[in-house]
Design brief:
Length: about 270
Amino acid sequence: MSATHLLLNIVGSYRTGPASGGVEIWQTGVRLGLWTGAGQPDDLGDLTPFDLAAASLSDSGTGWTASSNWTTEMGINDFDPVDYLGSQVEPAVRALITSAIFCSDVQVDEVNLYPIREPDGKVEPAPGYFQGSPATLTFTGTKPSGAGSQGLPPQCTTVASLRTLQTGKRGRGRMYLPPQPTSYMSNLVLSAAATLAIGNAMVTFLEAIRLPYSVGGIWCAPIVTGAPYTNYSAIKNVLVDNVVDTQQRRRRSIAGTVDTSPVDPWA
């Protein structure tokens, strides 16, 4: 059983107010390519399938635990999903979420790493399992949260557009981010300083989750790919629009408080 790439999903919720307690959640993600061989991978190319093996992996650190029922078999050097989550992803996600680009209501709960197969883009199960599952890192105790002020509504989202050398839709990806602080707004759009700060924070995050060949004999880098998931484009730029987007699925369960004002229809 094999996969062609990985999908990293960051899942969070809200600390305070009517959206807290899991009433509303948010998630955003990016795809990752894996390559063996000392030579730096091309910016555009074919994904190389890698085998999965059943495993029972676990690890923990300050404020987090991680586990997985799968690992990779890539030849001389293998990619350990739990080690990657604990050593690379956890500090990168923590630094991103606790920055000032996110409002103080936002918190991160867990990170999931899925092995994705071709051509249907579904999660590939490890041998012996009927259904695919992610390697998961769960934040414990006081969860990392945004350092900004009070934020925009949950359905308001800034989009980090991921650009590659591939032209057209197949060369573009999107990350829908959790809400920004209201202080980032200026005349109904994000200020120039805000879009710059968001873009810089996303670049820092994407570069922090990379793995150079010198670390473990495997390259790992953020990519854009799509059906049938056989080729990739390495992410080269992050674009941030100053117009705030919306995602209605982030505002499903929050209970509003409705005030009724009577109208006298007759003079």
